[in-house]
Amino acid sequence: MLMMSRRAGETILIGDEIEIVIAHVGRTRVKVGIRAPRELAVLAREVKLVGDENRAAAEAASSAAWREVAARWKSASSFPLPGR
């Protein structure tokens, strides 16, 4: 990990296309601006983690729901239908 000291208004370049701008330095926070190509996703790490957790939960719920439907269908198909 590279550690750098920067003041408000100074920038950090990453490659030729990404620029990190230190917009404001407060007592407990630093405001950072990021200039990057539109096709490059720029997210706060916690936003990505929440999205990953939501996708995993939805996938697990979907799998559980399909297993329940399959189990119900299997148990329902073992009973003879009236008139047969």
Describe this structure in words.
The chain is α+β, with helices and mostly antiparallel strands. The chain folds into two domains: 1-39, no CATH class; 43-78. Helix content is 39%, strand content 21%. The chain has one helix at residues 45-77; strands at 11-14, 18-25, 30-35. A three-stranded antiparallel β-sheet has the order 1-2-3, with no helix packed on it. The longest helix is centred in the C-terminal third of the chain and has 33 residues, at 45-77. The protein is rod-shaped. The termini are far apart. The relative contact order is 0.08. The mean pLDDT is 86.
Keywords:
3 strands, 84 residues, 3-stranded antiparallel sheet, alpha+beta
Q: Could you name the ranges where pLDDT drops below 50 across 5 or more consecutive residues?
A: none
- The secondary-structure class comes to alpha+beta
Sketch the major β-sheet: 3 strands, antiparallel
Strand content: 15-25%
Query: What is the rounded distance between the termini?
Result: 72 Å
How many domains make up the 3D coordinates?
Answer: 2
> What's the Cα radius of gyration?
26 Å
* Discrete helix count: 1
- Oligomeric grouping of the chains: single chain
Q: Output the strand order for the largest sheet.
A: 1-2-3
- What is the strand tally? 3
| General shape | rod-shaped
Q: What is the chain-wise order of helices and strands?
A: EEEH
